[in-house]
Amino acid sequence: MGRLYPKLPDAIDKYVNGVRGRKSQLARAAGVERSAVNRWQDGEDPGVERIHAVALELGVTVAYLAGDTEAAQTQEDLALIRAYHAMPDELRKAVDAMTAPYKSTPLKSV
């Protein structure tokens, strides 16, 4: 069976990026020992009970970690989507008009 979260090792690598103590910080956020983070980097998947906390700390979405490149990839993406949906209709129509030329542009991976 394949990995549930194939992007997780790379996301952890980007998060840690040589900064001392980042794995411990991720472990605390997920409620696990630091050794669990090492196992995730080596191919083990965190349980579903932990993946949301892991994604939040990494600043990405669970869909991104699962390999869905068409989904919102970061917490910032999600914040923009929520803001768009909270806009009054007039403002949303203006944003739609401004972004119309980009609607056929494929998304790029982070």
Low-confidence stretches are none
* CATH architecture identity of the largest domain: Orthogonal Bundle
How many helix segments? 7
* Distance, first to last CA: 25 Å
Helix content: 55-70%
The biggest beta sheet reads:
none
Average pLDDT over all residues: 86
Q: Which percent band covers the strand fraction?
A: under 5%
Overall 3D shape: elongated
**H/E element order:** HHHHHHH
Within CATH, the superfamily of the largest domain carries the name: lambda repressor-like DNA-binding domains
Number of domains: 2
CATH topology of the largest domain: 434 Repressor (Amino-terminal Domain)
Helix/strand/pairing category: mainly alpha
Report the top-level CATH class of the largest domain: Mainly Alpha
What is the number of strand segments? 0
Q: Radius of gyration from the CA trace?
A: 17 Å
Describe the structure.
The protein is mainly alpha-helical and 110 residues long. The chain has two domains: 58 residues, 434 Repressor (Amino-terminal Domain), CATH 1.10.260.40; 29 residues. Helices cover 58% and strands 0% of the residues. The protein is built from seven helices and no strands. The longest helix is centred in the C-terminal third of the chain and has 12 residues.
